[in-house]
Design a protein that fits this description.
mainly alpha, 2 helices, rod-shaped
Length: 161
């Protein structure tokens, strides 16, 4: 009898612990989702910046072409073309850096999605485990009630004898 009570208490404690762990995992999933949203916003921002830089590169390339055509007219035009060429090179490097950053962020986002899926599976497994423990507790509780009734019936029969 005492063992059953202790076992029931242990099951209750374990069920509470499972519920706490499930809550922790839910919180972790929420944090990962928030991080995922932040990463998506960063990607959007960097994508926009990259588009602006690419547009600026195209404009500068058009200017370089124009200046190259006029370069035959004077040395000043040649100097401007070199300056614009350096600017294009700098902008191309910035565009490459932006592309690298976007790839890194996409990889981090993918890893975050993988982790999120992993934690969701863990939460599901813990919830299933908790449900199994609750079912087992109910089964043991019913058996306990049956045995209690049998004991009372036996006690009643003994008093009638």
């Amino acid at each position: 009898m005492e063992q059953i009570k202790q076992r029931m208490q242990a099951l209750r404690v374990e069920a509470d612990e499972s519920a706490n762990r499930a809550e922790e995992f839910k919180n972790k999933v929420k944090a990962l989702e928030a991080e995922n949203t932040q990463k998506e916003q960063e990607i959007t921002s960097l994508t926009h910046k990259n588009q602006v830089l690419e547009a600026e590169v195209e404009k500068l390339e058009a200017l370089v072409k124009t200046f190259k055509e006029e370069a035959g007219a004077g040395a000043a035009a040649g100097t401007q073309a070199e300056t614009l060429q350096r600017k294009i090179q700098v902008l191309e490097e910035e565009a490459e850096e932006s592309d690298r950053t976007i790839r890194e962020l996409n990889e981090k986002l993918r890893q975050t999605d993988v982790k999120s899926g992993h934690y969701e599976r863990k939460v599901q497994a813990l919830e299933n485990e908790r449900d199994q423990w609750e079912a087992k507790f109910e089964e043991l509780n019913q058996k306990y009630q049956q045995k209690q009734k049998e004991l009372e019936d036996l006690a009643q029969e003994l008093t009638n004898i």
